[in-house]
């Protein structure tokens, strides 16, 4: 068998039997059984072949021992491509390319490139235009710094810190998408947080007056057909991040496959909104409301309050006390304090609002 074939077998054995970040010593490579008769001279010949192919990197290990680290074929091809690429660039373009290359998937601001290269703005602009025209680099939009023009290598995908993750579309927060996934998650979690108990008929004596008002009649009232009860303490069947993520990806409501990191962000928001409760430090989640209540809440669409509506309708349409109450729009809110010149006790608007909007 030729040296090239043995080197290929040695490389494949290293990939299949060791983790990618493993540091190889001579005994590791000889233990794979690829080198005939464990010939040390031939092992060094094989490793040098792989080093020349950029598939192994020669390092200094523990106690100054000779060691190697495996390099994936994809990274090796990128390395060779980078060498060939730099040979086609002038010194200024090569300097700019190396600075952009060093930032990886995070990208770099134009002003930072200028500071690190020391090039005049006119020369830097010419280099960036040339590199972008050759499809070596690309401009990216950073959601954290929307006004900054940033660059990264054309073959790399921006990190989530740059794009904002799954909840941003073209650098803009997609509120409708977030709301759709959030409502689905709340209902999904609620179905695992409550169980449906058998309906129980409850006899309640209610009195109604007759036409003349002298007599009263009694009639039974039946409870709702569905009754939801919470699971007892110690229950371990609540939804986890993994099950919620799988349910979202299988539902078809998202055009892209979401990761657990993105779902955790929404779960934290739902907990802050008092819709879910985190259990065991985020291992499981429980819904505050039962499935019927969640469905009813999601079906409600609050609209503007009609000034001619009756008190019952006003009470039903008032959802946020801080925005509806006079305090939320009061121009002297910061001066208001108990016992002061402006105080809740002397407010002439507070009592009428309570009476009309809340009914007390």
From TrEMBL:
InterPro entries: RNA_pol_Rpc34, RNA_pol_Rpc34-like, WH-like_DNA-bd_sf, WH_DNA-bd_sf. It is found in: Nucleus. The keyword Nucleotidyltransferase does not apply. GO terms for biological process: transcription by RNA polymerase III. One of its GO terms (cellular component) is RNA polymerase III complex. Coiled coil: none annotated. Residues 293-312 are annotated as: Disordered. Belongs to the eukaryotic RPC34/RPC39 RNA polymerase subunit family. This is DNA-directed RNA polymerase III subunit RPC6. The lineage of its organism: Eukaryota, Fungi, Dikarya, Ascomycota, Pezizomycotina.
């Amino acid at each position: 068998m030729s040296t090239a074939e043995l080197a290929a077998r040695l490389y494949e054995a290293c990939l299949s039997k060791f983790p990618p970040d493993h540091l190889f010593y001579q005994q590791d490579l000889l233990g794979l059984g690829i080198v005939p008769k464990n010939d040390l001279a031939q092992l060094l010949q094989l490793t040098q072949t792989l080093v020349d192919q950029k598939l192994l990197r020669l390092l200094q290990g523990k106690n100054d021992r000779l060691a190697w680290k495996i390099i994936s074929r994809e990274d090796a091809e990128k390395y060779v491509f980078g060498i060939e690429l730099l040979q086609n660039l002038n010194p200024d373009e090569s300097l700019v390319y190396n600075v952009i290359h060093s930032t990886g998937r995070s990208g770099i601001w134009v002003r930072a490139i200028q500071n690190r290269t020391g090039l005049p703005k006119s020369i830097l602009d010419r280099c960036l235009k040339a590199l972008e025209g050759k499809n070596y680099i690309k401009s990216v939009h950073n959601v954290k710094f929307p006004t900054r023009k940033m660059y990264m290598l054309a073959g790399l995908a921006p990190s989530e810190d740059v794009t904002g993750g799954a909840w941003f579309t073209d650098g803009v927060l997609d509120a409708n998408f977030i709301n759709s996934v959030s409502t689905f998650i709340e209902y999904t979690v609620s179905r695992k947080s409550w169980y449906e108990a058998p309906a129980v008929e409850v006899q309640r004596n209610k009195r109604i007056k007759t036409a003349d008002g002298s007599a009263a009649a009694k009639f039974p009232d039946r409870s709702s057909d569905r009754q939801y009860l919470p699971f007892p303490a110690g229950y371990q069947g609540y939804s986890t991040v993994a099950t919620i993520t799988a349910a979202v990806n299988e539902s078809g409501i998202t055009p892209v496959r979401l990761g657990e990191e993105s779902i955790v962000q929404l779960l934290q928001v739902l907990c802050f909104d008092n819709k879910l409760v985190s259990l065991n430090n985020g291992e499981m989640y429980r819904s505050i409301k039962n499935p019927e209540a969640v469905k009813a809440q999601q079906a409600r669409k609050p609209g503007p309050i009609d000034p001619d509506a009756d008190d019952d309708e006003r009470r039903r349409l008032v959802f946020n006390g801080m925005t509806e109450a006079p305090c939320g729009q009061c121009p002297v809110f910061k001066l208001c304090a108990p016992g002061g010149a402006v105080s809740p006790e002397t407010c002439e608007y507070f009592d009428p609002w309570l009476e009309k909007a809340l009914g007390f």
